[in-house]
UniProtKB/TrEMBL annotation, chains A, B:
Uppermost EC category: oxidoreductase
Organism of provenance: Paraherbaspirillum soli
Similarity field: Belongs to the FAD-binding oxidoreductase/transferase type 4 family.
FAD-binding PCMH-type domain span: 48-225
Listed PROSITE patterns: FAD_PCMH (PS51387)
Key words of the record: FAD, Flavoprotein, Oxidoreductase, Transit peptide
EC number(s) given by UniProt: 1.1.2.4
InterPro entries noted in UniProt: FAD-bd_oxidored_4_C, FAD-bd_PCMH, FAD-bd_PCMH-like_sf, FAD-bd_PCMH_sub2, FAD-linked_Oxase-like_C, Oxid_FAD_bind_N, Vanillyl_alc_oxidase_C-sub2
Stated name of the protein: D-lactate dehydrogenase (cytochrome)
Signal peptide from the UniProt entry: none
Organismal lineage: Bacteria, Pseudomonadati, Pseudomonadota, Betaproteobacteria, Burkholderiales
Flavoprotein as UniProt keyword: yes
Superkingdom of the source species: Bacteria
Cofactor: FAD
Length: 469, 469
């Protein structure tokens, strides 16, 4: 499928002295077996696998530091690995080297319920964190869909369905423990909710995709579980009506917790996959968090807004089982779509625009998909102006892939022309390095390159991602 | 008063060629008059003035770039200047050079009401921005007290009373235009609400205090003016009761828009200054934003919480004039305190701790003030765990100043031991460079130094602030 340009550019066999040192430090937690390298050489993107030369399972920050010191000395690439759910080729070993698997660093270090914070090792997943803080009456809201690790989510600046209310990893990460390329261990912040003490190292590493250092511990904000939760769905004759209803909802300041769009194709796929009988129209799904009265008030406001935009079939529910039923369509959207074209893979896109331009951006992109006979659906975290077009392609058909990538490129161009971004939440990885230049301009990219060179002078930290050396 | 250590270390006369070039470019907007240099050589801190050698009034990003290119070539320091309200010596010309005054860059470039964003030149003040967006039904919530410029607020990562609900400049800055030390102009972001496109240059410059580049334009988030606003006040026999009531309010997830603490000394000063008759006890002031019913619900919840903590005299109000009356005490707090000791100046402190430790931190600090016979009051943005002790000192009494600084140092040590920060919102400037090391540790400071060296290789950007070269 998608081929990396510089897969073999700098690739060379690992030095024997490094192999020996890693083996003696990590024993069976250091491996070069093909199966393990294959597992660590692919992510959820459409790229062909690119295998690391070896895999190390670290169990502590000190072990990560030891790996980085050795790899720094030997000029060998290090690619941090969490759960392998990234979507833009972040964890592929484009230049070989060591995949540094942090999934065994999965201890919850502290929940400070009284401060609404938790500190976890990087390999803790978001579901694990939520499971472990459930009894404290708190929850961690960031939900990118996959059960990603908190370290990986910080590294890609992830967000997802709840971001419209609770923000992204950018807003919810208070502090990190990071190991820099030379093996130094730094703490980037404290548990204070705000600080103006020096350069914002936390935000520097959030979203840096393993290219500036390895995140080994994360302190995040938690939130009180809302007193009441309600959900609502409704259908629209056009995507434009649906999106315009969302725009008005946001402009009114309704504090929706989630608002998701599914286009007609997505709903059709769901109906087929989950044996549902939803109207085959654009669908909006809402979730409201607040007091009993507050969620009712929000639902009433939204009901009035969507009615103005010709919504039909407005339903809302407060009981958990009814909410789950209403939202069932959303949870299965990705897998349902894959069923529409057996043997295919999905190329996912990810733009975010100022909300006033969202309808326009989605409609033009939809028209482009239609004009190119794509098999696709559109899913949007529309409250943030963020949406994804999933296009199904034949992994063995280069022309098919090229057509989809051309749709993606035009979609990015459209978003940038609207003062939006080429990546709302998936990151840059291998896939968006050119779009990144297009978005930021060469001068800003030069600043990013200065950062990379300052923090990683030997270019061993996940090389070949975000910016070219 | 407070003396800078390295005031004259690198100071030398400006080169004649630079003077000539600046004069020919800026005409009367370039000046070396003593009056103008004095105006630009002091801020709202307790430092003695440190005068720049000259002042330039820039009117565009290109003019800022021209100044930086020239100063870079001549290795002359440049200190960005907004409204001069910083509190830690940020704008003092510790090593001489050019004060680059941005106050004439005061144009509102765009309000995108439908996207809840505004883009302003750096010299626009927060009051000006709020005045100009009033008719659009929106407001900009960050309120540090002084009518600071938006550029200055971004540069110091400012916050203030509304941060508990709306966040700080960190959360509310979407994009910046920045001129780097070599005169390059970069745009750090777009108007998309979220992005995972590359390194977070926006957050790198927010809080960098002019030491990495000059912020010339800022895109910020705006918010719909709330449908309803209400205010409440109540008194407590002890600071501990007041703070514990706040802790519980936050832990319950009540979305208070503001919650401010004034200690008994502060209330006494206000009574004397504004001829009020408030009970001379610790005072909490709340503000609630939301729907009519929402603000009532919040006020009721808070009333129940404060009652558990022995509050007295709970009053709440929704009409603007009544709200203003309730909050009058807060608005005059700083000036009222100054009246308690004629001829004095205030040394202000600024710590932020995890909220569960706030009562302890305030009480120990209060005891320290009492033990040292300070004339002081405590003001807290307590919902964030942030508080200030204002100590009145005789500017000509070195021992008096030293006593106050010792109280401050112990307060910082206490906050750091509680996993808090040495600066909640005032920044580092000249004053907190040693505390910054204490907070972050030498390894993290080394990373900050790498950033500084990468972005400002000749050390001309506000040198001698945040970290030592």
């Amino acid at each position: 499928m998608n081929q990396a340009v510089d897969q073999t550019a700098l690739k060379k066999p690992l030095p024997e002295t490094l192999l020996t040192a890693l083996h003696s430090l990590f024993g069976e937690r250091f491996t070069t077996t093909l199966a393990m390298r294959e597992h660590h050489g692919r992510d959820a993107s459409s790229y062909d696998p690119m295998l690391p030369d070896a895999v190390v399972f670290a169990e502590s920050t000190d072990e990560v530091a030891a790996v980085l010191k050795l790899c720094s000395e030997h000029r060998v690439p290090v690619i941090p690995f969490g759960s392998g759910t990234s979507l833009e080729g972040h964890i592929l070993a484009a230049q070989g080297g060591i995949s540094l698997d942090l999934s065994r660093m999965n201890r919850l270090l502290a929940i400070h319920a009284e401060d609404l914070t938790a500190t976890v090792q990087a390999g803790v997943t978001r579901k694990q964190l939520n499971h472990e803080c459930k009894d404290s009456g708190l929850f961690f809201p960031i939900d990118p869909g996959a059960d990603a690790t908190i370290g990986g989510m910080a590294a890609t600046r992830a967000s997802g369905t709840n971001a419209v209310r609770y923000g992204t990893m950018r807003e919810n990460t208070l502090a990190l423990t990071v190991v820099t390329a030379n093996g130094r261990i730094i703490k980037t912040g404290t548990r204070a909710r705000k600080s103006s003490a020096g350069y914002d190292l936390t935000r520097l590493f959030v979203g840096s995709e393993g290219t500036l250092g390895v995140i080994t511990e994360v302190t995040v904000r938690l939130y009180p579980q809302p007193e009441a939760v309600s959900a609502a769905v409704c259908s629209f004759g056009s995507v434009a009506d649906a999106v315009n209803a969302v725009i008005q909802t946001i402009q009114l300041g309704v504090p929706v917790a989630r608002v998701e769009l599914l286009d007609r194709n997505g709903v059709k796929a769901i109906n087929a996959y989950a044996k549902l009988a939803l109207p085959e129209q654009a669908l909006l799904l809402f979730e409201f968090h607040g007091s009993e009265h507050g969620v009712q008030e929000q639902a009433e406001t939204v009901q009035a807004v969507v009615a103005e935009h010709h919504a039909t079939g407005f339903e809302w529910a407060t009981r958990p089982e009814d909410r789950s039923r209403l939202w069932a369509a959303r949870h299965n959207a990705y897998f349902a779509l894959l069923q529409m074209r057996p043997g295919c893979r999905a190329i996912s896109t990810d733009c975010c625009v100022p909300i006033s331009r969202l309808a326009e951006c989605i409609l033009e992109t939809q028209a482009d998909c239609e004009a190119n006979d794509m098999i696709y659906s559109i899913i949007g975290h529309v409250g943030d102006g963020n949406f994804h077009v999933q296009m199904l392609v034949d992994p063995d058909d280069a022309a098919d892939i090229a057509r989809a990538e051309a749709v993606n490129a035009r979609m990015v161009g459209r978003a940038l022309a609207m003062d939006g971004t080429c990546s709302g939440e998936h990151g840059v990885g291998l896939h968006k390095m050119d779009f990144l230049i297009q978005e930021h301009g060469v001068e800003a990219i030069e600043s990013m390159r200065m950062l990379k060179h300052a923090f990683d002078p030997c270019n061993i930290m996940n090389p070949g991602k975000i910016i070219r050396w």
